[in-house]
Design brief:
single chain, alpha+beta, Butyryl-Coa Dehydrogenase, subunit A, domain 1, Butyryl-CoA Dehydrogenase, subunit A, domain 2, Butyryl-CoA Dehydrogenase, subunit A, domain 3, four-stranded antiparallel beta sheet, 12 helices, 14% strand, flavin adenine dinucleotide binding, medium-chain fatty acyl-CoA dehydrogenase activity, FAD, Acyl-CoA dehydrogenase
Length: 393
């Protein structure tokens, strides 16, 4: 059993840390306050090939895997980006590059992957709906066959990055849930040309005002008879659930990597403050009441990192990783939240000041306990599939 990072992954970590090190907390704070995508960082990631690690070399990518993407995301978050890093690696590198590399047709790969690798195409992902929420089985967005195309109508919610995207990786039902046997049948994953649909007036979106992660907008998306060519299906019509799991599991693994990196960043910021702040003549970090909770969080982050890497390693080898992805997401999100909460407590009243990054990290960390899957559903999965307890939902 070898716990050293592969040489390629270690090089990825160093490279992304070098990019992150050029941008301080003032930069990330301004991006968040202005609700602005970190374009400068994104261009550096694209130019350095740090966003296309999981795209095969023959299409201009790094020829690596999900483990390297997870390491890159963790490094960007820990290097200064915090919660802003997650969407920078989820939207295009994972939802686009990783998914098309695994499930795209030969023609889709030849056409799209080089453009993703060069930064010419950006993507986003749409599954969540207002009524279905976390119950993906019950989504109602319909795609009906019409000659050489599918016609899609429905609504999606909390779709991040659609305002930037060229392609929307869309999950729709080609067989209604009530008629599908088994219930996981009848899903189709489509690649929607966002700009074309917007120009035709068949796709519109409305940003949702939100508490945190403001470097990317999240929107309601309305689909009104959007035409999608039949050659834009990922996988097979009606058999999209297999593709979907190869989106959802990497999403959870990368979310976990973001939690580990973000938690490491805010923990470092808290420890620096605790080592310097001395209102009673010695640094507050010398007090066990301050030091021990921070030390516990360090232990939690290290454990979450191990499970994140294990889950990514399994996925890269085509092995089942659902439980590992869920456990990684659960533990990393909780550790990141505990780190942000403890940093807030360490800073005392000054944490409430927007002059310090703690308030922003506190806001960004909280949502990770709810997305991309609520921790209650993760616990229900563990209870049923790992402990053998009766199904609870």
């Amino acid at each position: 059993m070898d716990f050293d990072l592969p040489e390629g992954a270690a090089a990825v970590r160093e490279g992304v840390l070098a990019v992150a090190g050029k941008y301080d907390q003032d930069y990330w704070g301004r991006c968040d306050a202005d609700k602005r995508w970190p374009e400068e960082v994104w261009r550096e990631l694209v130019d350095g090939g740090w966003h296309s690690l999981a795209i095969p070399e023959e299409y201009g990518g790094g020829g690596q895997g999900l483990l390297e993407l997870a390491v890159a995301l963790e490094a960007l978050a820990e290097g200064g980006a915090g919660g802003a890093a997650s969407f920078m690696y989820l939207l295009t590198p994972a939802f686009g590059g990783l998914t098309i590399a695994r499930h795209g047709t030969a023609e889709q790969k030849r056409e799209l992957l080089p453009k993703i690798a060069s930064g010419g195409i950006e993507t986003c992902f749409a599954i969540t709906e207002p009524d279905a929420g976390s119950n993906a089985i019950e989504i109602s967005t319909q795609a009906r066959r019409d000659g050489d195309a599918f016609v899609v109508s429905g609504q999606k919610i909390w779709i991040s990055g659609v305002e930037r995207a060229d392609l929307l990786v869309l999950v729709a039902r080609t067989t209604p849930a009530a008629q599908a046997r088994p219930r996981t049948a009848g899903f189709t994953v489509l690649l929607v040309d966002v700009k074309e649909a917007v120009a035709e007036g068949t796709l519109t979106y409305r940003p949702i005002p939100k508490l945190g992660t403001n470097t990317v907008a999240s929107s309601m998306v309305f689909l009104d008879n959007v035409r999608v060519p039949a050659d834009r299906v990922l996988g097979e019509p009606d058999q999209g659930f297999a593709v979907l799991w190869d989106i959802l599991n990497p999403e959870r693994i990368l979310a976990a990597a973001g939690g580990v990196g973000s938690g490491g960043l805010v923990l470092r910021i808290a420890c620096e403050y605790a080592g310097e702040r001395a209102p009673f003549g010695k640094p507050i970090g010398a007090n066990q009441a301050v030091a021990f909770p921070l030390a516990r969080i360090k232990a939690q982050l290290e454990l979450a990192r191990l499970m994140t890497y294990k889950a990514a390693w399994l996925w890269d080898r085509g092995r089942p990783c659902g439980s590992e992805a869920n456990i990684a997401k659960l533990t990393a999100a909780d550790a990141a939240w505990q780190a942000a909460d403890r940093a807030f407590q360490t800073y005392g009243g000054m944490a409430y000041s927007l002059e310090y990054p703690v308030a922003r990290m506190f806001r960004d960390a909280r949502i990770a306990k709810n997305i991309p899957v609520a921790e209650e559903l993760v616990l229900a999965h563990i209870a049923q599939h790992e402990l053998g307890l009766p199904k609870s939902y």
